[in-house]
C-alpha cells in the first residue's frame, strides 16, 4: 500500500491502544471494547429496526472493521470491510432473503484504498454467475461478460463508428449495433489501452447516436460507449477510427 496508509494504520493502532482497558467480560461487546472498537447501530428512519451496524474506532467516527447493512425485514443487505476509514477488501451485496435462510450473494466487489480494484462479480438468485467486469484504482475497464441463469454467455454489442467530412473537420457518429438503454458516449484515449480515465468528454446524443466534431489533424480518435443491459449491469465497449 501507499506510505500514508502505513501512517494511518500506525495512528489507528495508537488510538486502539489508548482506548483499550483491561476487562473481565467475555461477551462480543466486551471483546470490541478490549480491541478499542465499538459497534454503532443506526435504525431505519421512523423505525426501531436496525439498518446499519458499523464498526468504528471507539470515540471516533473512523470506520474500522465490518460495516453491515440490513433490509427492513432484517436480512443482510451488504457487508463492507474498512481499514482506517477506507474500504479495503471484498465487499458483498446480497439478495433479500427469508430470515431463516442464508442470503444469496448478488455482488462481489474488491476494494483497495477506497477504490474498486480487481475483478467484480455478480450472481443470479440461483447462484450462477451473472456478470464479471474489471476496475483498476477506481477506473472502469472496457468489457463485460454476462451469462444467463443457465450459464449461457450473452454476446456483447459492437460499437459502430462512421466519419463524415465537413468544412471544420470530421463529424464522428457512434452507435451500438443493437438496442440498449442509457447509452453514454465518450471521446478520448484509454489509460493502458483499456481503462476509462475520469472526466472523459461526453458526446452529444441524438436518437441514440453519439456525435462529435473533430479537427482534420486529430489523427486517430477513440470513442467509448457505456450502456445498461437487461440485468442492469453497465457494459463498456471502445473503438478507434483513423481520420
Automatic annotation (TrEMBL):
Q: List the source organism.
A: Draconibacterium orientale
Going by the UniProt record, its keywords in alphabetical order are:
Signal
Q: Is Signal among this UniProt entry's keywords?
A: yes
Signal peptide interval: 1-19
Protein name per its UniProtKB record = MORN repeat variant
Q: Which domain of life is it from?
A: Bacteria
